[in-house]
Amino acid sequence: MLLREGRVWLRDVAGKETALTETSDAGYFTRFDDKTWALFMNDKQRRIVIYDAKTKALDTMSLGAMTAPFRVPGKRAVTFVAVEPFPAPEGEAAKTASPRKIYLRRLDLDTRQVTTLAEIPFATSGSHVWTSRGTLLMASGHTIYEWNPAHPEDWRKAIEIYHPELQGLTRIAISPRGDRIALVSTPSDEVIIRDSRATSNKALAAHNAAAFVQVLKDDVIVIAASGKLIQGRATVQAEIESRWKAQPDLVYIRTPTTIVISHSDPAASERGTWTGHATTPDGPADWRGEYQATWRKTVSNAGVPSWVIANELFVALDCTGSGCAGARPPTAR
Q: Do 65 and 193 sit in the same domain of this protein?
C-alpha cells in the first residue's frame, strides 16, 4: 500500500493499482481491517479521523495533530502527537500567548475515545514507535527517549548519538524482531550550511529577494565590499532590490572554501570567495573578493537544527572590465 495525491492505493506484483480510500487530502494512514482506517488529514485542521471504507464516512476524532497515527501493538488503537493551543494565536494575541505545548494522545477505535497520555517536555517532530515491551521511543535532536505508560511523566534518555550525520532525528522505525532501529535525520551541520549557501545563490540568480534573505537573522549585520554597513534583514532585502532595479543584470555568487563548526558555541565560521557581475554606464564589470560569515544555530520546534547568518564581511580584491573605471564595489553583498 502507498499514499499518493491524498488517497491510499494498493499496488499488486503485476503493477495494477486499486484505490483503497476515497479521500483527497490524507497525509498518513494506518489500516486495521478492510473497513476501518485511522488517517491523518493534511488539511488546515490537521485532523485525525476514522475512515469507513464501505460508507466512505470520515469521523473527526482530534484536531491539531503533528504526526501519523501509529498503531499500538496488539490493540485497536493508535497514538499520535498533537499541539495546543490549536490553531496558534495570531496578531496581538500571539505576543502574550504562552508557549504551545505538545501531547502524546491515544485514539481507541472501538470506543472512539481520545485520551491524553503525557505531555512531551522536549522539542520533537513527534514521530515515534512502540517496542515489544510496551514502551515507546521518540527522537529529539540527537537523543532517543523511551516512555513507559506506567510512568507517564518520565521520559528517559535511551541513547544520545553523537555522529555528525545524526544530529536532527525526525523519523524512527524498529524492526519486527526489535533488534534494529532505522532513523531519518537532517544532514550534518556543515552540509546544512553549504546547502543553505547554495540555495541563497540560486535566489540571487533568480532575483528573488524574499527567498534570498531567509537565510539571514532578523538583526543580521553585513559589511559590504564598499565598506557600507547594512543592518537588519529587511534593510538587506531593500538594498538588493534597489540594486537589481538599477542594474538588472547584477548577480553574485558566494563559494565557501572552509566551514568550521564551533565546539563551544552554537556557531560556525564560513570563509570563501565571491564574484559579482553588473553592467555600469562605462560597461561590464566583474568583481571578485573574499568573505567571512558567522552562522548561528538554533533548534526548531521539531528538535532539528537550523542555521542562519548573523554577520558577513565582504572584501573586494579585484575588478576586470571597462565598467570598473570609477566604479565602486557592490554595496549589497
A: no
